[in-house]
Every structure is written in structure tokens, then in C-alpha cells.
Amino acid sequence: MSAQGHPDVDARASQPLCRRVAAGQSTSSGPARHETSGDAFDIAVHVLSQGQTLSAAAGQAGEEVAAVLEGTFTIEAAGETYRLSKGEGIIIPSAESRLWTCDTKGGRLYRVINRTSLGAQAGAAA
Known about the structure:
Elements: H1 9-12, E1 32-37, E2 41-49, E3 53-56, E4 63-70, E5 72-77, E6 80-85, E7 89-92, E8 98-102, E9 106-114, H2 115-125
Antiparallel strand pairs: 1-2, 2-9, 3-8, 4-7, 4-9, 5-6, 5-8
């Protein structure tokens, strides 16, 4: 273990450990999605136009942490409705349905979905 507390730091020095996610620009054909995935998480920046939506049915997505970077969104999740603006965020429990709708001319949404939380919940129910 290195002095920094991380095993094999020297062995990994040639391989990048972090992934960059570009914020991107929207397109007229649909929401832009700039994403990366790891073993446990999906991370994305979504660029949407007014009226465009993102959704997941109940049982289809893990715990989600999201923040509005630009614009205003209505989020229906876990049987509740919220209106979020720039600088506001939400945590949605695992397996709950969710529907994001962009309410303004343009919107930018940062989302992190924990895929392992969905599996953990399924295992607990069994």
C-alpha cells in the first residue's frame, strides 16, 4: 500500500482512473446524453428542450441523485411531484418510477444512478 493509502498506485499510473463527461449541446432531434458508466454507477448530463422527457418505470432504475444545472424541470417520482430549478437537486429511492420533463426552452440535468442499489433491493425482497 502506498503512503497515500491506495494499493498499486504505481501500477495504475499509466491508466486513467477518472472519466470525463462532457456537458455538450442539445440537438433538435432529441435530448443529448453525455454519459459514462462504471461497475456501479451510470453518470450522465442530459441536455433537453422544452417538453422533452426522461423516464424509468418502477423497478427499472436504482437510486438516483440528480441536480438541475440549467433550466427548470418537473419531476414525478415515488408518487410525488416536484419542480426543480438551477441549483436544486433530488434523491430518488431505488426502484421508484420517475419522469423528468423539461419546462423551459432548454435544460441541463446531471444524473447519477446507482445500479447496485436496485440489485440490493431485489435481493432483500427475495
